[in-house]
Amino acid sequence: MYTHTVRGNRYLDFWHYEKHTVRGNRYLYFWHDEKRGASRVQVKEYLGPVGSAHTRSDATQRCETYFAQAAEDLKRLRDTSLATIRAMAGH
After folding, report:
1. DSSP string covering 10-39, please?
2. How remote is the C-alpha of 17 from its chain's centroid?
3. Which residues contact 36 (CB under 8 A, 6 or more apart)?
4. Are 48 and 61 a contacting pair, CB within 8 Å?
5. Total structural domains in the chain?
6. For residues 39 and 23, what is the distance between their CA atoms, to the nearest angstrom?
7. Distance between CA 71 and CA 74 in Å, rounded?
8. pTM of whole model > 0.70?
9. Boundaries of domain holding 28
10. How confident is the model at residue 1 (pLDDT cuts 50, 70, 90)?
């Protein structure tokens, strides 16, 4: 099994993909945590056979989407943190 994991801070989600071999065939899975109400759940999604161009394209798109959202989350966190620090000057 091959696993790639990215862990964010408490403001970012957790995701990774896994490659499993079953009866000589390799398959790719994408799993991540999702907020559902007040809790978080792990979601594992089957993407398809590793050798499939569609599977790799889907995995690439999911990776791009994750990092775009993570960049937005970090920018919001940065902006909020800087505004808080700047507001301290007025106290």
Report:
1. TTS-EEEEEEEEETTEEEEEEEEEEEETTE
2. 9
3. none
4. no
5. 1
6. 36
7. 5
8. no
9. 2-88
10. very low
